[in-house]
Structures are given as C-alpha cells and as structure tokens.
Amino acid sequence: MTVILTFIQRAIMQGIPILFGASGEILTEKSGNLNLGIPGIMYMGGVSGLIAAFLYEKAAGESAVGVVGLVLSLLFAILVAMLGGLIYSVLTVTLRSNQNVVGLALTTFGVGFGNFFGGSLSQMAGGVGQISVKTTAAAYRAPVPGLSQIPVVGKILFSYGFLTYLAFIIAVVLTWFLLKTRKGLNLRAVGEDAATADAAGIDIARYKYTATIIGAGIAGLGGLYFVMEYLGGTWGNNSFGDRGWLAVALVILSIWNATNAIWGAILFGGLYILYLYIPGLSRSSQEIFKMMPYLVTILVLIITSRKNRPEDQPPASLGLSYFREER
Asked: Which of 9, 221, 226, 244 could form a disulfide with 17 if both were Cys (CB 3.0 to 4.6 A apart)?
C-alpha cells in the first residue's frame, strides 16, 4: 500500500512541470503559433527563478524570509519566460520567420542559457549541487496546512506546494477561457483561419503575441516548479531531461484541451517513473519504459486522425505565418 501511495504521489509530482508546459503550449497553439521553444523556455524560467532566490538569500543572510524569496523568484521566472515568448513572437509574427526553426533555436538557446547560468551559480555557491536556497524552497514546498495530515488522502491530494494546485487551476481556467469567452473564441478563430478572423476585425498580431507571451510565462512556471519544489532549490545541468518535449507531446495527447492535459500529465508522470518500481529491469528495458509516453501520444494521434472529428484536430493554421496581403 505504501509503495502504491508513493508511486501516485511521485507521478503527480513528475507530471506538474509537464502540465505547466502543455498548458502554455495549448494557449500558444490555439493562436496558430507552434512554439517548439517550450523546452528551452522551461529551462529559462527555472534557472531565472533560482538565480533570483539565490541572490536574495545571499544578500539577506539569516534574515531571509521564504515568502519574499518565493515572490521574487516567481516574478523573475515568469518575466524571463515571457521574454522568451516575446522573442519568438517578434521573429515569427512580425518578421515571419519559420516557426519550427525559431522554436528549435529558442530551445537550444534556453538550454544553453540554463546550463550556463545554473553552472555559474553552482560555482559561486562552491560547486555543482552546492546551491542552497532552502528558505525559499521550503516556502514552495509547504503542503496544505491540516489537510496534508489526513491519512492516505492527505498524502495523495494535499501534500504538495502551491504551484501544484496552481497548475490545475490554470488548466481549468484556460479551458473555460478558450471555450466560454468571447476572447477565447476570437483566439481560436485566429488559429483556425487568420484571414477570416482578420476580415472580421480581429487583431491577429495582438492575439498571437498575447497568447504566445502568456503561454511562455505559464511554461516557465514548469521549470520553476521543477527546480524549487521537485528538486528543493538546487540546480543540475540537463536535469530537466526531456520533460519539455513531453509537454509538447501532451498537447497532442490532450487533443488541445487543457483539462484533459491534467490527467495526461499524471499519466505521463507515472509512465516516466514506472521503471523505477519494476524490479529486475535491464538498462535497455528501462529505456523502453521511458519511451512509453511518446508511444501513447503516437497511438492517440493515430486514433484521433482516423476519427477525423474537428474538435480533436489541431488548429488549421498551426505553424503557418499569416501574410495579410495574401488574404
């Protein structure tokens, strides 16, 4: 029983950064922008938040307050991640560069950005793994008071920091926004047919910029969660693994619905660590288990494409730059 409870808890924890990344990418893709820079943006958000917390705690010393470090790191992570979204928007919306190329370049830049500054921070702190932002990390990891002490239920549902619950809230609110509001309808119209939306008086550039920048900010929270809550305020180069790409895959698995992404993220989190709970696996067998989230995504893609239901398909203009003069 204890092993099962631990597995469920770990699956949720593994799934949260993936859920943040997928939610941000769903918002972005609904505008017609395909931002493959999400993995790099998650790196940028994580290392930026860690830098802010580290510098604050170093300056404040023993008088450092966890909540202050939390607010500073949260703001810094979101702003830097949104800057990544702004760079992507300028290059793809204004300059009309190829979205795939820009996205992949942004991921390469973001990973390098994270490893460079994270490695530099480690050297300042005395070596790799010596970064200590325990005060701030403790604020991030604080569970729900009282409820987390409930046997079984408390451990599964209430033993996480606030970013876990924020990820769920963002996913639900995002679904409501896209399906139930006028601006959400306009955004979806932009992603489906920018020329028609433009003819209807919708500001294409504004919607694309806004969705991409806010989506990047949400994705950046995934990197911050991984660094602060999951790793406890430490940094290791390339420690994110392929979670950023799993977030992109989750967009397809959830059929562009952020509420579906909640369950998909937990599923991905469970599949990602499943090999750790199966004794006697060889190294090659472990790698096969690590492939399972991608295999599930491919299976869902095949099934949805065969059904060909409009609500299960990606935005019709996804990945295509809009040229108004061609309308």
From this structure: 226
Q: Which sign, positive or negative, has the C-alpha torsion 47, 75, 176, 160? A: positive
How many residues belong to the chain?
327
Cβ neighbors of 261 (< 8 A, separation 6 or more) are 19, 22, 23, 26, 171, 250, 251, 253, 254
Q: Which is it for the CA torsion 256, 257, 261, 267, positive or negative?
A: negative
Contact 319, 96 (CB under 8 A): no
Q: What angle do CA 283, 264, 153 make, to 5 degrees?
A: 95
Residue range 162-194, pLDDT digits in tens: 999 999 999 999 999 999 999 999 999 999 999
Structure confidence at residue 41 as a pLDDT band (50, 70, 90) = very high
Domains of the chain: 2-326 (1.10.3470)
Mean pLDDT along residues 225-235: 92
Q: Residue 278 and residue 325: Cα distance in Å, rounded?
A: 58
DSSP 49-104: HHHHHHHHHHHHGGG--HHHHHHHHHHHHHHHHHHHHHHHHIIIIIS---HHHHHH
Alpha-carbon distances, residue 110 vs 44, 198, 259, 276 (angstroms): 6, 33, 27, 29
